[in-house]
Every structure is written in C-alpha cells, then in structure tokens.
Design a protein that fits this description.
This protein is α/β, with parallel strands linked by helices and 217 residues long. It is built from 9 helices and 8 strands. The model has no long low-confidence stretch (mean pLDDT 94).
Length: 217
Amino acid sequence: MKLEFDLSLYLVTDSTMVPAGKTLAETVDQAIQGGVTIVQLREKYADTGDFIATARTVQNITRKANVPLLINDRIDVALAIDADGVHIGQDDMPLSEARQLLGPHKIIGVSVQTCEEAEIAVRGGADYLGIGTCYSTNTKAVKVGPQGPAGIRAVWEHALKVSEPPCKVRAVTIGGVNQYNVAHVLNYACAVNGTCLDGVAIVSAIMAAPDPRLAAQ
C-alpha cells in the first residue's frame, strides 16, 4: 500500500544553503519540528556514495517523525535506501520507467512547467505535480521563466481537467515562495472551481534560515 502523504509544507533541501555551524540533518530535523510535512532530498553535486550516506542520515530523522522522504532524480539512491519515493524532472528518467523500477507503492512526483507537461504526467500516473516556477529563483535552472500565481493556476486547472476520479491529481508550486508571499500564491493559484493547490514547496526560505523551525512555522 502506498504511504499516505501530506504536501502542505514540502521542503526541498539544498545543503549549499545551510548556514555555517549547522548541518543538513539538523536543518531538516528542525524544519520538521516546525511543521514540514514531506521532504525531498536534492543533492545535485554529490557523488553516489555520499548521496546515499546523506540520504540514510536524513531518513533516520524523517522516519522517526513519520514524514515521507523523496529523493530528487536519483532512482538508484531511492532504491538503495528504500526511500518513500522520488521526484523527477523533465530531463530525468521517464515516469513510466521510474514506476517500473520503484513499483506501484512508491510516491512519484513530476516537475512540470506547461499544460502539456502536466497532462503527460497526469496521464502517466504521477502521484503529484510540482508546478513552477512561480517566482524567480536561483535554486534551480529552468527553461521557462517565472509564471506567477496566474500561470501556475492555468497549469493546475489543466491538470485537474485531464485528471480522472477517483485518482484526482495533487500538486504543489515551487519557485521563490516564502513567508511573505505564500498566502497570496495559494489564494491566486486556486482553480476556478475552487480547488486549491495541496501545498507549497520551499527551498531557501527554510534551508538558509538561521532558525529552520521558526521559518517552517
């Protein structure tokens, strides 16, 4: 059975942002104490061995808190530690192949920037979408510029339109979301029928914060 997961406050890690004197593990732990509901471990520049070691350390924290841990891109790392799932982008392994390797019970999320990408991911069986980018960000190179809440809403509405009950698609938005604009994003990214995003994905606003617990609250 697939693990239940809550997307409301989705942390995407970046160890390069962790302030001096803190560790990635400490930051994740404190963020979870502050309310983070799901964690994606993203280590773009780590060697495989180092990535696996980091993933195991973070997994010890997430499992104690009953918070799902997803691995960014690296299916091999997810398999090595038996992670709860993965998050893949448009240039990563195709969704169908990732599902074949991971099986039916793991969580698979897909990054999308356009209505076409969203439709392909929904029809391919993605468990959730990461729609972005909402605002300008330096945490990840993107092919499509910032879309703003209105652009996010357009992609979200299309995803809902092509999603078939009872497996209604879920989604978060990512890109420059922080404590100052999160309410605006969630309000204005709601679909016309009133269906709102399931949450927001946060990177720097938590990872770079001196107090990750407070930032997550």
